[in-house]
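Quick start: what a row looks like.
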Amino acid sequence: MSIVQQLMVAGNETTTAALAEGMRLFATNPDQYKKIQDDPSLIPNAVEEVLRMSSGSSGIWRVMHRDAELGGVMLPKGAMVMMRYHAANRDPKQFENPNEFRVDRKNARTHMAFGKGIHMCVGNMLSRKEMTVSFQQFAQRMDNIRLKEGAELHYPPNMMLRGLANLPIEFDKK
């Protein structure tokens, strides 16, 4: 049951949330949307930048296997810690101007949205493909994506997942 639950959440909620975040980012950064429309070869990198800016999973719990110090704080063996993907993905030591959304960012794929190593999300390639195909279709069919006037974006509180409750957008048909 645990594996089925993981597949349902990881294979559905997170990709859905990332797609919505991508549309929000394109609606609020029309110059970046225009770039993928003009040059669809940027779409796979745009997917990585969306994941870097707003991964669907906010973090992951881990147990310390040995004593360690992080930022001057001692973390004892056995302590529960949460790695926060959003913090790692906005690290100015790793990403120049980390709060800017840039579809042509050279190191966008170095994000932590899918974890790392033995904890890498098994569905990461499927999620990337779904997002790539979706953004290709949007770029071909939709112009002038924008947030609906007066739209209020709401993120339900959740320690593990991050996703919009809804995304009121408008666009012009291409």
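That is the whole record. DSSP finds five helices and six strands in the chain. Helices lie at 2-28, 30-38, 43-53, 85-89, 124-141.
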